[in-house]
C-alpha cells in the first residue's frame, strides 16, 4: 500500500469538494451539465496556468487530478512543458500529448463497457 492514510483522506476531501461544487451547480443553477463540464475544465486550465492548481495537486493528489478540473490542469501543464522543449509549436501539441493516455483509456474502457453491456434508450 503506497502512501499513508492521510494522503487517502486528503484525496477524498479534495475530490469530494470538487464534486460537491459540481453537484451544487447542477442543483442550484439552470446550467446544463455540458456547460458545467466546460466550466470545470476551463477553471482547471486557468488555475493551472496561474500555478494555483499545482498546490492543490500536492495536497489532494488523485483527488485533484482525476476530476475534470484535473484534465484542464493536465492540458496546460503539458502545453507549458512542450513550449519549453520545442518552442511555440509546443503550445498546440503539448496538451494533447499530456492528455493522450487518459483520453485513450477513456475510449478503450468505454468501448469495453459498451461491448459487455447492452445499452437501452431512455424514455
UniProtKB/TrEMBL annotation:
Positions of transmembrane segments: 6-26, 33-53, 98-117
Report the InterPro entries cross-referenced here. Spore_V_AE, SpoVA
For this UniProt record, give its keywords in alphabetical order, as a comma-separated list. Answer: Membrane, Transmembrane, Transmembrane helix
- Does the keyword field hold Membrane? yes
**Pfam family of the protein (one):** SpoVAC_SpoVAEB
Asked whether the keyword Transmembrane is assigned, the reply is yes
Matching entries from PANTHER family are given as: STAGE V SPORULATION PROTEIN AC-RELATED, STAGE V SPORULATION PROTEIN AEB
Q: What is this protein called?
A: Stage V sporulation protein AE
Natural source organism: Acetivibrio clariflavus (strain DSM 19732 / NBRC 101661 / EBR45)
Amino acid at each position: 500500500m503506497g502512501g499513508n492514510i492521510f494522503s487517502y483522506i486528503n484525496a477524498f476531501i479534495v475530490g469530494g469538494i470538487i464534486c460537491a461544487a459540481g453537484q451544487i451547480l447542477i442543483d442550484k443553477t439552470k446550467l446544463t451539465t455540458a456547460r458545467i463540464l466546460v466550466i470545470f475544465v476551463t477553471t482547471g486550465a486557468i488555475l493551472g496556468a496561474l500555478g494555483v492548481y499545482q498546490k492543490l495537486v500536492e495536497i489532494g493528489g488523485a483527488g485533484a487530478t482525476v476530476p475534470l478540473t484535473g484534465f484542464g490542469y493536465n492540458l496546460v501543464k503539458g502545453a507549458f512543458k512542450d513550449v519549453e522543449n520545442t518552442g511555440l509549436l509546443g503550445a498546440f501539441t503539448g496538451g494533447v500529448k499530456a492528455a493522450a493516455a487518459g483520453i485513450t483509456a477513456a475510449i478503450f474502457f468505454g468501448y469495453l463497457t459498451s461491448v459487455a453491456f447492452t445499452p437501452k434508450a431512455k424514455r
